[in-house]
């Protein structure tokens, strides 16, 4: 999968291997695995992503452009949003700014969730990636 760091390509590949409701189950597994925020980072200091239907906050630490750190916060009652954030955390956290900027803006279409999740929710994932890239530019 060109333009994607190996970790993100692996996530996309895993989603391609399952069908229908199993994709939703996998998304929920990701939601449950969203890393907690580090103790020194408060949600109030993070950037909101208003395009998401549920409250989502993100923080991009690009001090080391060879190892960008990404942090997300979303409530437990927003499993779709948490799942998307977790996919980005697993796939992009610790990658270089160059590699993150090279990720196709519509990579999430390869997850195969369009028939299961509303276009509005899918746009939320696009918005998360766009905001990360904006920080890195």
Q: Provide the number of structural domains.
A: 1
CATH class (first level) name? Alpha Beta
State Rg: 14 Å
What is the average of the pLDDT values? 93
Strand order of the largest sheet: 1-2-3
Q: What fraction of the residues are assigned to beta strands by DSSP?
A: 5-15%
CATH architecture: Alpha-Beta Complex
Tell me the number of strands.
Answer: 3
**Count of separate DSSP helical elements:** 5
CATH fold topology: Sufe protein. Chain: A
Shape: globular
Structural class: mainly alpha
Distance between the termini: 23 Å
Major sheet details: 3 strands, antiparallel
Uncertain runs are none
Oligomeric state of shown chains: single chain
Query: SSE string, helix = H, strand = E?
Result: HHEEEHHH
């Amino acid at each position: 999968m060109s333009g994607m760091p190996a970790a993100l390509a692996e996530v996309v590949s895993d989603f391609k291997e399952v069908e229908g409701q199993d994709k939703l189950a996998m998304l929920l597994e990701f939601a449950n695995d969203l890393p907690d925020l580090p103790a020194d980072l408060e949600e109030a200091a993070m950037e909101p992503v208003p395009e998401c239907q549920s409250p989502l906050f993100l923080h991009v630490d690009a001090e080391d452009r060879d190892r960008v750190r990404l942090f997300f916060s979303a409530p437990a009652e927003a499993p779709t949003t948490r799942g998307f954030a977790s996919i980005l955390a697993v796939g992009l956290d610790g990658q270089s700014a160059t590699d993150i900027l090279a990720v196709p803006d519509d990579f999430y279409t390869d997850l195969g969730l369009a028939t299961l999740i509303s276009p509005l929710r899918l746009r939320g994932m696009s918005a998360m990636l766009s905001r990360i890239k904006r920080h890195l530019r």
